[in-house]
Amino acid sequence: MPNTYIENSEKLLGYSDTVFRGIFEQSPLSIQISSPTGWILHANKACEQLFGASTEMFKGYNILHDRQLCASGLIHQFEKGFAGETAAIPAFKYNVGSEVTGTQDMRWLRAIVYPVMDQGVVSEIIIIHEDITSQVEAEIIQRERKNRLRKITDSMPALIAVVGKDYRYRFCNHTYEVWFGMPVEKIVGMTIGDLIGTAGFHRIKEKFDAVITTGSTENYEGYIIYSDGSARYISATMLPNVNEDNQIDELFLLVNDRTTQKEAEEEAQHHQTELAHLARMSSISELATGLAHELNQPLTTIKLLSRIGLLQLEAEITDHDKLYEALENIGAEAIRAGEIIRHLRRLVAKKNPKREQINLNTLITETVSFVGTETKDASVIVELDLEENLPEVFVDGIQIQQVLINLLLNSIDAIRKANTGKRKIIITSRHEDRKQARVTITDTGCGMDNDTLDLIFNSFFTTKGEKGIGIGLSICRSLIERHDGEIHAESTLGKGTTLTFTLPYAH
After folding, report:
1. Total-model pTM
2. Which of 83, 123, 164, 262 has its CA 20 to 30 A from that of 487?
3. CB 396 within 8 A of CB 355
4. What is the pLDDT of residue 477?
């Protein structure tokens, strides 16, 4: 009678051996089985492919004698496995061909040494090698990119950061240490509000949220009050970072400190305003006689009419119509005098520039009226050729009126010098294009040669001798360019000059 137990055991052992052999041969990992003394007994196909050697070649190789492992200091970790302790060897660089085949093929490996125990004694050693070259090289590339990015960003004076939608810093460059006096490691993980203060954060929060929710690129420029009370004028750009799932969970933040530049601009603006005021005062000085005459006329008329009214009352003359007419004329002349004074006050007042939508033709007409006495005294005719229905311009009216007054006074002075019979100034306004209007002032004055024409916009250059201070046209150019316009001159000696400038439309 057959021994069923023995037969079943043999079948089970045979089946187990078949399963093991299948796993052993089909495993993608390199597997070696060695004796407790280090000699390789078996190697699977993956091992042959990795090391480029046949099973027969491996059978004559002792892993405990491996020169590379000995030189790298890893052999003692393998020896722990051979002594009965499972050992996991981290990534190491290994020439997989040199020891067995004499070839050169450097690979990154990770190994596990697993001892097989039989009744407390090590009977065999299983050594598993995993080729992690691609993974390690990818990590090296990633690390090199990060290091390169860190070097680039740390060398820049601007603040560069990656911020999550929870407002917490995930990355920031070395400039943050300089600005805020704390290490990068401490800043990473803080919220924007924690770092710069609640007041400063609320200045940019709306734009920050817009980047996260809409994916738009947002910019902010202005003063930020920091938590220490200091104020900095910054320009910030916020760009979305879209992840693999096409979601925005963080943004790139680039911040430049423009405080010094802004203060310099404000100082230059203040200096320019002072010069402009000086130029206006110089123009007013030239207009002083005419202004006195303009004011004297309505005041004399008021005095005369009031005297007539009083005489009628003293004589008990009750011609109400004449008295009413006299009082009405007094009121009109008072209004006229008041307008002259108000206009003069606006010109001489020191105030910050303020742009608004203005009818250019109206501004030109008012200015011509303001210099009316000067043109009369010089026997100059001013012709207006103003294009109708011009769009409104977006300018500071007082500054543009200052430009017009200066150009008109220069033209009048040039006509006086020419002393010719043709004494005329023509002012035109034209629709230049969809963006701007063009104003041209042409006179029949003495004109200029090319050398003088090249210098007229330079500061402190004057053709008026001791009468001029040489900043009028320089200020005019500065004011026009500040309005995003252009100004230039054309002139022919003995025939006259044409000044042309452009101004942007209000949109």
Report:
1. 0.40
2. 262
3. yes
4. 83
